[in-house]
Amino acid sequence: MGPVGQHSDKRAVRSVTACWHDPAPSKCFATSNDNCSILAFSKKTIYSRERNGNNQNKLHIRQEKEFHIRATEGINIMACTMLRPEHAHSWLDNAIRVAPLRLSDSWRKQQVEAALCKVQLTGAKVLRIKEVFHSEMERGIHQQPSSLQMENTYIPELPDGTEEGLFLALDLGGTNFRVILLELANGVVIRQHVKHYHIGEELRLGCGERLFDFLAECVSDFVRSQNLNGTRLPLGFTFSFPMIQKGLDVGILLTWTKSFNCPSVVGRDAVQMLREAINRRGDSHVEVLAVLNDTAGTLIQGAVLDKRTAIGLILGTGSNACYMERADRVQHWEGQRHGEKQVIIDIEWGAFGDNGVLDFIKTDYDRKVDDNSLITNSFTFEKYISGKYLGEIVRVVLVKLVEDCVLFGGTASDTLLTSGAFTTSLVSLIEQDTVDNSCDNTSEILNKLGLSYDADDIAVVKFVCETVSNRAALLVSICTAVLLERLDRPDTTIAVDGSLYTYHPRLKSWMNKYIRLLAPGKKFRLLLAEDGSGKGAGLVAAIAVRLKQRFSET
Hints:
Elements: H1 10-14, E1 17-18, E2 31-32, E3 35-41, E4 46-51, E5 57-62, E6 67-71, E7 81-82, H2 85-96, H3 106-116, H4 123-141, E8 151-152, E9 165-172, E10 176-185, E11 188-198, H5 201-204, H6 208-225, E12 233-239, E13 243-247, E14 250-253, H7 270-281, E15 286-292, H8 294-305, E16 309-315, E17 319-326, E18 342-346, H9 364-371, H10 380-385, H11 387-403, H12 424-436, H13 440-448, H14 455-487, E19 492-497, H15 499-503, H16 507-518, E20 524-528, H17 532-552
Helix pairs in contact: 2-4, 4-14, 6-7, 8-17, 9-11, 11-12, 11-14, 12-13, 12-14, 14-16
């Protein structure tokens, strides 16, 4: 699209009206009714105002460099407004607001909206979160104090189509541990076998050495079942917990998350512990070549599906993101460099805000959820957005509304009062009702929870689920928009995996809307890249084999 003076729709330029100031480019917003049209401009663009005959402000733009107007596809430009910050905030408020609550009782409506108002993010808070996330990324990448770890994964390249052979992948991140055999040809998985092993609570919360012995036992059982005891098998280990990586095959466990807490092995190398456990058994020829988390695996798997992939997101029980960073920006690099041009950076954004930088959006509901969590005062961002916690946030809000006598006649069932009883899967089902303009799922859920309800109660429950879900989608989108701006590529694919993204009926559409809003002019797409934690780990093991051969030849 050319400069404004050459724009095909000159009426759009003539209609530009302004509540004007001299804005910084990063804080420029424009509107087209309730839709987003984006103004991107040079710092040297000169602005002037004058009154026309209708006593309206007109903004006339004289260019020294370049000025673009891009309208959201399919939207006619009615009016574009360059906004002061306070007007930008107001416009954003409207753009991100959930559908209004409609109740027959106006008093109940007012009480519910008052109880939910702090859960709904304002435009001012959205912009502040964006600035804070960018700042925390910069501090983290430069090894300054930050809630974002910005960990170097030492994965310097993506699959190139030459990967072939048999590889093992281990996937540890939840109560089900997976061992996977992958056969690769031309960089594509042509055959795979998977076996699941349940990890009981006594292992997840007990001695860490016993946990790794169990993992080695599962590997041995799987290799034996595939008749591969005498075969050398390169292995990629998806270890979906925060770690400090000192190499592709060195990952120091920082802390456990989700339902795991084995304190005795915090601070130790996960790869070394797995190797030692496998060696103690001595019944398989497995070589652990790489450790990664599920987010990096998702990016790798996405790159196989679409070479434009440069961001990986996990939106499931937990949440995290990674992206391709320029190697010259990365200060933390143990060992010798080999001319790498890029590397995957694991952001560990679940901990975003653990240092207090997000306290301005924390509600009493969030504090209660945190107080009842396995590890308090940690993984702040994850507790706003992940599948493990969204249902619990909804439950806590519903209980508060019952206590205020504006829901279920002021009477809660024992089930509703039980922590963890309202899962995120229920939130997704209720949100499906909103999509379908139905109440069937909501009614069935409330019946199973043992609650007495009327039509207004159903509307309130749907409103709470929408509000909490929308906040999660918006928070993810804010941070993803920052990543797109940091990459500054002409076209980027974002690989996403996780149960929340897969099963929540509205998350993807909200994310598409909000990312476009917050990263104007950045071309992107969301790509479902399933099983990055499995296939991705095998592919990284194949990359590790290639790198090992290359380095041995130099």
